[in-house]
Description:
By secondary structure, the chain is of the alpha+beta class. It contains eight helices and eight strands.
Amino acid sequence: MNSTLLHSTLREMQALFASPRFWGALVAVSAILGVAGPFGTFQELAPLPRFAYWLALALATFSVGYLTMRLTLAAVFGAAGSRPVRSVVAGTVAGIPITAMVVLFNRSLFGGPLPSVIAAAGLFFNCSLISVAISFLIAMGRNPQGAAVTAPAAAAPPRGSAPSPQPSPPQPTRPPLLDRLPHAARGKLLYLSMQDHYVEVHTDKGSTLILMRLADAIREVGDTPGVQVHRSHWVALDAVIGSRRKDGKLFLNLSDDAMLPVSRSCIDAVRKAGLA
């Protein structure tokens, strides 16, 4: 297993668990299940233990399912594959550990024998169906491919004309995106990279994972001149120190030694921005 990928995934999960929205959604779903009491829990458990049961089970199955889906997508597809295929494969594979988690969870709480093969197959089908649906929702929230320069260059005066006095340029405002970062990481924006439904914001003071779409993050870069170079990457113009081709593909070299790919649909925008 790639230790870098595992470390990155664990960081994503840590950022997710620090999100109030995540816990709000988890508590809301657990409350609904606690009131409804599906799968016999209404008869087996009192209201408060029933809510605690669904909260613990939802957290455990989400954790193992998310970790499995993330590692499966990276190992099987990398950055390739259509979204529907990726979602179905990742969700189905994640159904295996989720099913095992549910069986072990119920056996430790209620006791009794292990389920029969038919019952386990039915449970696996239900768990896989739910995880595939969640995988589809995550994929639908991703930013569609495209490129747009976020801050066009100012037009030059006509050749031969004397430059007219210009008022002092206004002081640039801090990008709203930086307010989402820890104080120690609020530096000069370098680039943004999408990782599933997270955006990793890179500044000259470090990097931070934020739970949001890349399109929303780009809208919050403010006056920072930049361009989207790939469906998963946006770069600040000042952060690019060069470009190179590798195996016929164009890459941009950044000031922190990172090298980001340029997709074919974004090459024109990259050239227009003077980066290649």
